Amino acid sequence: MNNDNSAAEKIEAPSNNELSAQDVASYLKTNPEFFIEQEDLLADLSLPHESGKAISLLERQVTCLLYTSDAADE
């Protein structure tokens, strides 16, 4: 990793170095800027989506993918 204090480096893992789903959820709740600072991760996520129930994270992922696609076309 680089020398800046990335969001991933801020997570305090339990002594066994394993993060639970609750650890991740708690981190994301207390760091709402995570996906803004780690925008490239959105393109790699697979989010289940029921028709008609759009979620803001999915919309953000689509926006990022479109931006990446547009930038590649230039």
Task: Give the overall form.
Answer: elongated
Biggest sheet: strands, sense, closure? none
Poorly predicted ranges: none
Tally of domains: 2
Rounded average pLDDT: 76
State the distance separating the first and last CA atoms: 29 Å
Relative helix content: 40-55%
Strand fraction band?
A: under 5%
Helices and strands, with pairings:
Elements: H1 7-10, H2 21-30, H3 34-37, H4 39-42, H5 56-73
Please characterize this protein's 3D structure:
The chain has 74 residues and is an all-alpha fold. It has 2 domains: 1-37, no CATH class; 39-74, no CATH class. 54% of the residues lie in helices and 0% in strands. It is built from 5 helices and no strands. The protein starts with 6 loop residues before the first helix and ends with a helix. The model has no long low-confidence stretch (mean pLDDT 76).
